[in-house]
Amino acid sequence: MAMRIDFHTHIYPRDLPNFASKYDNDKWPVLEQKCSCGADIMVSGEVFREVTNQVWDTKKRIEDMDHEGVDMQVISPVPVTFSYWAPIEQAVELAQFQNNFIADVVKAHPDRFIGLGTVPLQDAKAAVVELKRCKEIGLAGIEIGTNINGENLDSEYLLPFFEAAEQYEMPLFIHPWETLAQERTPRHNFLYTIGMPSETALAAASLVWSGVMEKCPNLKVCFAHGGGSFPYILPRLDQGWDVWPSLRRTKYPPSHYTKNFYFDSLVYESQNLHYLIERFGHEKIMMGSDYPFLLREINPGKIIDETLDLSEEVRKAILGENAMSFLNVERSRVLNGKSSENA
């Protein structure tokens, strides 16, 4: 049976300090628990997101994983906690708390969880320092947002961070946040269904057009939600590169630089999964559900299971093997965990 690694899941420390009170600024996210099984994440005095205990309760997580057939979760911070707007000393404090928490969860359950950290990208030097520390405490990669206070990922000041991620073999998981056109997307929750995919496309396009991926050819990057709209506009980007030679920053067109782009499988329909496989190769797709939020896939890997024409080799790769390769995780770690549970 194929092992199942859910690459895209989020976790929030139940005891995250109240930075809003500590630093007298209500822009900080605060978890206000309503009952033992639910809470509100508050930002600027308003409910940012209602969450269940799945977001902080490791025991509940493992119960869900067992019920839904997931062997391991890759856990990463909830994007609202990136807090790139904050003073750097405070942002470092928050990042370190979360990274220590995630590392502790992984250490307590090494056969069930793999951890991704967060870094304060408003300061590239501080981000590099925390990236190195994340590797030292056993985290397998870094989750970052799609922009830094309105600066796209091709901003020159970020290049040392990408170079460090490449050097220290810390793959990046890029997740949308602070999406574009926020003033036009509050109704109908378009922020989540349209804003986020568009924001992700802008982030991916920035990396391939600007030369970041050309300068960092061994940097591995995964984009949330199947890459948003990026896979479908990539030919248009190539056309733009072709007809506007004065705007070129790379030797080859944008599609040339996607060889180290990976995508989670959260695309909801088999035809979309087929498109990702055909364009980028099945080796670049990783099962991801967005656990524990409302738009998640239940059960994780549902679309992969329902895409009946996939070979067993391709199915195994997408369900788990690609995630291990992307995160440089030893296969024995996962197999040992499965063996101990079956004993």
UniProtKB/TrEMBL annotation:
Pathway noted in the entry: Secondary metabolite metabolism; quinolate metabolism
Keywords: Decarboxylase, Hydrolase, Lyase, Metal-binding, Zinc
Top class in the EC scheme: lyase
Matching CDD domains: metallo-dependent_hydrolases
Native organism: Lysinibacillus fusiformis
Record GO biological process: secondary metabolic process
Pfam families linked: Amidohydro_2
Lineage start: Bacteria, Bacillati, Bacillota, Bacilli, Bacillales
PANTHER family in the cross-refs: 2-AMINO-3-CARBOXYLMUCONATE-6-SEMIALDEHYDE DECARBOXYLASE, 2-AMINO-3-CARBOXYMUCONATE-6-SEMIALDEHYDE DECARBOXYLASE
Positions of the Amidohydrolase-related domain: 5-327
Protein name per its UniProtKB record: 2-amino-3-carboxymuconate-6-semialdehyde decarboxylase
Keyword Nucleotide-binding: no
Description of how the protein assembles with itself and partners: Monomer.
Signal peptide from the UniProt entry: none
Entry-linked SUPFAM superfamilies: Metallo-dependent hydrolases
A GO-annotated cellular component: cytosol
Enzyme Commission designation: 4.1.1.45
Annotated family: Belongs to the metallo-dependent hydrolases superfamily. ACMSD family.
Superkingdom to which the source organism belongs: Bacteria
Molecular functions per Gene Ontology: aminocarboxymuconate-semialdehyde decarboxylase activity; hydrolase activity; metal ion binding
